[in-house]
Amino acid sequence: MLFVTETLAIADWELSESFMRASGPGGQNVNKVSTAVELRFEADRSPHLTPSVKARLKKLAGRKWTLEGAIVLQVDETRSQARNREIARERLVEMIRAALVVPKRRIATKPTLGSQRRRIASKTQRGEVKSLRGRVQDEE
Predict the structure, then answer these.
(1) Global confidence as pTM
(2) Distance between the two ends of the chain, CA-based, in angstroms?
(3) Quick one: angle between helices 51-61 and 81-100, nearest 10?
(4) pLDDT (tens digit per residue) in 57-108
């Protein structure tokens, strides 16, 4: 079980991990040991997440969201397989927690009377400046 909040936990059947050789520094060890982890979370099939949370999670995941509705996280930051596994699980939990937060609805407000007057005054002034750029007429 992966605990996200006090009330939400992800079951083990929803998560699958595969290990592969990591790129980068590590000496000869990098060619022998599979330390990089690929964590796959079946988000679309999860019974624990509501449809609105799934929609926000899909938006947050971006390219990590697959066509099958799974989130795939690849981590190869450290030389330790266990630490990479922990990092991947922490990132998934952070992503789900961010998706649980319902965004506030924006309430449209009217512009104040003062801001309307300032806007009209600046437009009038700008119009006068532009009208003075025209041809000068002779006064006869």
Answers:
(1) 0.69
(2) 93
(3) 120
(4) 889 888 988 888 888 988 888 778 888 889 998 999 899 889 888 889 999 9
Output the CA–CA distances (angstroms, integers) from residue 47 to 25, 50, 70, 99, in the order listed: 40, 8, 13, 15
Structure tokens given for 59: 């938006």
Place of tokens 């506030």: 104
33 φ, ψ to 5°? -110, 135
Extract the tokens encoding 12. 């083990």
Enumerate the β-bridge partners of residue 119.
none
Six-digit token string for 96: 């789900």
Query: In the chain, helix, strand, coil percent, each to 5?
Result: 45, 15, 40
